[in-house]
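Appendix B, example 12.
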Amino acid sequence: MVSKVLITGASVAGNSCAWWLGRAGFDVTVVERAPTFRDGGQNVDVRGVGRTVLRAMGLEDAALAAGTGEEGTAWIAEDGRIAAQFLTADTGANGPTAEMEILRGDLARLLYDAARDHVRYRFGDHVTAIEDRADGAAVTFTGGATERFDAVIVAEGVGSATRELIFPGENRPRFMNLSMAYFTIPRRADDDRLWRWYHATGGRSVSLRPDRHGTTRAMLAVQKPPSGEQDWAVARQKAWLRETFADAGWQAPRVLAAMETTEDFYFDVLRQVRMPRWSTGRVVLCGDAAWCVTPMGGVGTTLAVTGARVLAGELIRAADLSAAFDGYERQLRPMVENAQAIPGFAARMANPRSRLGIHALHAALAVASRPAVMAVTGALSGGGDDHAPDLSRYDGAVPVAKAPRHGLSPLAALGVVALTLGASAVLGRRNAPDRSHPGIRRWYRRLDKPGFTPPDAAFGAVWPALETGLAIGGYRLLRKPPGAARNAAVGLWLANSAMIGGWTELFFRRKRLNASTVASGAMVASGAALAATAAKVDRPAAALSVPFVAWVAFATVLADRIRRDNPDRAG
């Protein structure tokens, strides 16, 4: 019986496998070569059956909320105008921009956060040897220690070292004649929510894509046969890109300038992984290590989460490893082979070498984006579900500990909101400069105030509206599934709610004008952090916090002016 499992690689496929097996009661260890969790990576999407898997995990809504916010794809002409575009609002889930566009690191982090309570993670370590024995796989790690496992899942990348250790020479890579560099660049005011794709002669292209982290994701691509560029030093790769894109036009100069200082430069020569088998003995491959389809296939991440579901399902239901691995490959290989069946001319067609070819591509895309043919173009960009495995096969293999689909219950969330804002309101009422507090009222009226001070009635009208927005936003955040971003947003919401009442204590009761001005500025910073963090979890909650930030910013200016105009009372 399989009970103790090692997974190598803590990205999408590895973390997905860990989620399913950990919740099914397996003893799971995940080992990752990187010293800490890797949050980097470019845009990926999840479609069709992959969405079904995330939904079953209770993570679909969280993945949508953590998306990049990309609203469509636009092809840019030489003069900078849009030659053709597909908007997600028109194409739905299966356009060039999927409904679920998310950064690789954000999706991997979401899966990691959901899995780690049920599995062990070990970073900064990797496998150096695996010996298949009668009682299990003896796995030796980089520190020299050897441990026994019933099964080993290799869920690494296209260049998996563990795969080459166990399946030496078996991979027959198919090169796609396309070299690509990915990295993050500073965001500019004119960067919008579209994936902007510009072609230059010579098979070159420049892409800019949005994210939710205040930066822009850049990609440089060159259509050419491989010359070993993936093995060059980074300095040589960058020098080659500078020379290749020197006269490319559009925003190439901006991208090349930012490339020099970026911290997440990644270069690759696209190639598919073609393995005649995915398992041997107690070792099995999953994800890119088994079948990398390259970004040209469009379903790599969908395959990663789907493959993990199938592999885990077979391990849960099968009587022995051999049957589980055979069932896994039998169920999934048709989908993989369909995804890898990319025509040899695809890279050249998508990256024309001449101006005439670029004009022809743009003209074809403009026609394809018309409503009459939109359904066809959407289908061509779909998730390959015609070849997807039958996941109902695993309906009986239910994890013993399901991930929460929601955060707090409606009643509990309402209770937290009521207690938090209620306590703040009580404190504010205790310090209000009204007739019930004549001393505070008299002191406040004697302060020298600037001409832009709102009338007292305005404060009474504005604060209830702001606190209502905070209440609704807090409720929405508390109802979201727990996770790093959601928990951070809830913490900031609690802090801001507490600071409202705390500020009235400083200003009105203690009459500390200096301290209250500093506190007001801190509320602006924490309010802005709340809006930014909440946007990763729930966009309406983030929007509801914006009026609060704007009002507190105004209040900070007012408090500072009152402080300066009343130096003898600043305190």
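Confidence is low (pLDDT under 50) at residues 376-383, 400-405. The longest strand covers residues 174-186.
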